[in-house]
């Protein structure tokens, strides 16, 4: 990490050189730098120097005006960093006391832990929810997003230790894509065990490829559908047994129906788990067509407004189907994500999913690259 001078006066942490963040002012406006020389850490809070952040598709959608977002805001919610200052009583999600120097990842959400939703296990839908990279920047929580040199991690966040050997390019996306996939697979496996099952993954972006690897490593036979040839090719690197092209027609030999038929002829079971990671209405319709009797369709990708989909309830009733939405995750899922990546990055090319890396000051250029580039993620390195 960069050399810096840390001093503490009461609850105030002073950092030299001053931490800074890039603030988005609204659609069509460039990011502006904001210097934050002092941070008041409350009990259970952390000040973390960002090692690497990655640009999620939701960041791109916000900047392009494709999803609503407050302004001004410090975007970014996928990052890994090192603790430089600790508020009284700060602990990891599992209760380990946190000290300066620890390498950590943290949840996208800040939860109270006490409301009715938190008590039901839906901490990511807390009544008083705050979200890194999504909430309007305000006094007292200026360092609130990952596109910054430092982040003030608030009490109520799930904080997970990250091993020193894990590449930052692998660890950074864990706090969004990997943890969300862990939550989706947890929901699916509660309905249909993954070992020995046929799992269909629709979409081979960051989440889809991660789901392919995690389901394959859990013992599933995974089929991936994506309209982009390069993504279909990449799916094999993450364990896919077969791939389909939704652009050629459902019943074509290389279409989803044709590939499922060939898989069944080779002895594979009908898909009882379908993960829809693309957010495409057409993909959702394909999911309902492809899932087997008594199966589950888990929706992960539909996080921005899209076209409505006509749904015949008879299909759900006669086929005894379950449709489940998963948005964000619990602290348990973030721990699962980091634990999984600790080994999986050796056997699957997770590091290759992050393409070009930009300095923090060139965030606008990085967002343009993320909107049109070939890699699922673009990196932001605040240290250069």
From TrEMBL:
Keywords: Metal-binding, NAD, Oxidoreductase, Zinc. It comes from the Bacteria. Residues 208-341 form the Alcohol dehydrogenase-like C-terminal domain. GO terms for cellular component: cytoplasm. Its cofactor is Zn(2+). GO terms for molecular function: alcohol dehydrogenase (NAD+) activity; zinc ion binding. Residues 42-159 form the Alcohol dehydrogenase-like N-terminal domain. PROSITE patterns: ADH_ZINC. InterPro entries: ADH-like_C, ADH-like_N, ADH_phosphonate_catab-assoc, ADH_Zn_CS, GroES-like_sf, NAD(P)-bd_dom_sf. Its EC number is 1.1.1.1. Signal peptide: none annotated. Belongs to the zinc-containing alcohol dehydrogenase family. This is alcohol dehydrogenase.
């Amino acid at each position: 990490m960069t050399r810096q001078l840390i001093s503490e006066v009461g609850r105030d942490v002073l950092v030299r050189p001053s931490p800074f963040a890039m603030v988005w002012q609204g659609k069509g406006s460039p990011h502006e730098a904001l210097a934050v020389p002092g941070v008041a850490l409350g009990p259970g809070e952390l000040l973390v120097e960002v090692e690497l952040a990655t640009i999620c598709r939701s960041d791109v959608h916000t900047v392009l005006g494709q999803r609503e977002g407050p302004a001004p805001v410090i975007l970014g919610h996928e990052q890994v960093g090192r603790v430089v200052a600790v508020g009284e009583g700060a602990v990891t999600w599992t209760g380990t006391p946190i000290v300066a120097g620890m390498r950590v990842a943290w949840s996208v959400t800040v939860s109270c832990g006490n409301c009715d939703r938190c008590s039901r296990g839906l901490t990511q839908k807390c009544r008083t929810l705050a979200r890194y990279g999504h909430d309007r920047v305000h006094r007292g929580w200026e360092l609130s997003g990952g596109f910054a040199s430092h982040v003030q991690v608030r009490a109520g966040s799930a904080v997970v230790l990250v091993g020193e050997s894990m590449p930052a390019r692998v660890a950074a996306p864990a706090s969004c894509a990997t943890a969300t996939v862990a939550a989706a697979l947890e929901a699916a496996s509660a309905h249909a065990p993954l070992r020995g099952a046929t799992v269909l993954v629709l979409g081979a972006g960051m989440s889809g490829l991660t789901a392919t690897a995690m389901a394959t490593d859990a013992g599933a036979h995974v089929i991936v559908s994506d309209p982009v040839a390069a993504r279909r090719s990449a799916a094999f690197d993450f364990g896919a047994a077969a791939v389909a092209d939704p652009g050629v027609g459902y019943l074509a030999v290389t279409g989803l129906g044709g590939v499922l038929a060939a898989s069944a002829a080779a002895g594979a079971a009908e898909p009882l788990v379908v993960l829809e990671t693309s957010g495409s209405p057409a993909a959702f319709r394909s999911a309902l067509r492809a899932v087997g009797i008594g199966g589950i369709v888990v929706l992960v990708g539909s996080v921005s407004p899209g076209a409505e989909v006509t749904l015949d309830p008879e299909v759900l009733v006669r086929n005894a189907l379950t449709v489940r939405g998963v948005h964000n995750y619990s602290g348990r899922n973030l721990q699962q994500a980091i634990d999984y990546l600790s080994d999986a990055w050796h056997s699957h090319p997770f590091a290759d999913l992050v393409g070009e890396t930009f300095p923090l000051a060139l965030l606008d250029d990085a967002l343009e690259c993320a909107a049109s580039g070939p890699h699922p993620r673009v990196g932001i390195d605040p240290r250069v």
